[in-house]
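Filed under: proteins

Residues; backbone shape codes:
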Amino acid sequence: MWDKFLSKLYGDEALRSLLKHHDRERELVELVTGATIQKLSADRPQALTGYTVSLAVVDEAAFVKDESMEMLMPCLAVRQGIVIAFGTAESTPNSQWHKMWYIKGQDGDQFPDYWSVRYTSTDSPYFPPEELRVQQTLLDDRRFRQLYLAEWQLSDGSVFRNIDGCVLKDAPHHVDPVEGRPYVIGADLGRYNDYTVIYVADARTSRIVHQERWSNVEWMSQVERIDQLHKLYNNATVMADATAAGDVVVALLRDKGVDVVGIVMTPQMKERIIQKLVVTLEREEIRFPEYKELIQELNLMDTKSLPSGGVRLTAPVGYHDDCVIALALVNWGLQMGYSRVESLKVEEFGWQSI
């Protein structure tokens, strides 16, 4: 890229007239306007500090470490600079930012400062179509899709696999209760910094039929909402997070006669219910509509090793795990012995019991 830039700079008379100085040792170009353009390596993160940058162009973004981007971003703060990053649709354990930025760029409502687009190899007029067929025979399907079709394999390296296999495409996000049908509710409770997320599942089909997600709602109002859902869905059993203030909510629900199971999220208990969800997703034993926040969280969840030898579920900065925990709780309830129909059939809007 730098060679092409220099070729254009020296090959265009109008641009060449702007050149004041070119330090080839430092890979630094100074223009008569006072602007500077410099090539820097991201291999040494500390080398990216100390600059004031209007525009940063990041090549081979998939291989630029997270630490390097952490060093670079403060350089853009003063001028509210722009980053243009491009590379293959892949990530490594030390380089997750590119994937995160791409995902954010697909959600302009929640992240208006990000924008992302992808192009396949065949979008280039110079790429021979026959080469695509050759590479398809040489590479496994996932690798081929990454390198040539620019398809992010979003669950690569994350905690949960086979997420797409559990998503009910074009299914309604809400299904009314069926008289006499058993239901289970999973509730991850939050108030200020986190969301309260609730999933209602049909206990016979293990299909999520309703989602609620809110924040900044005082506890008594949350109790009332959960009680209403409990009654609406045939006095459904509620699996609720009883950690910290959640214990009070569980007690208030019991006072109202709600069939509620309070689960204290110790590290050991959290690991158990998450592992159960991992297995359930792999076997496609739970299904849900295209809830954007849930699918996003499932794809982005990772684990962090603890000094004790255990692991902790983590979400990237700016994201939550409330949807994941609520799904894990309702799944835990479903695995407690509720009966399920032996066979399911695909209808126009998803899975329904026969």
Notes: The first helix runs from residue 2 to 11. Confidence is low (pLDDT under 50) at residues 338-354. The chain is about 30% helix and 20% strand.
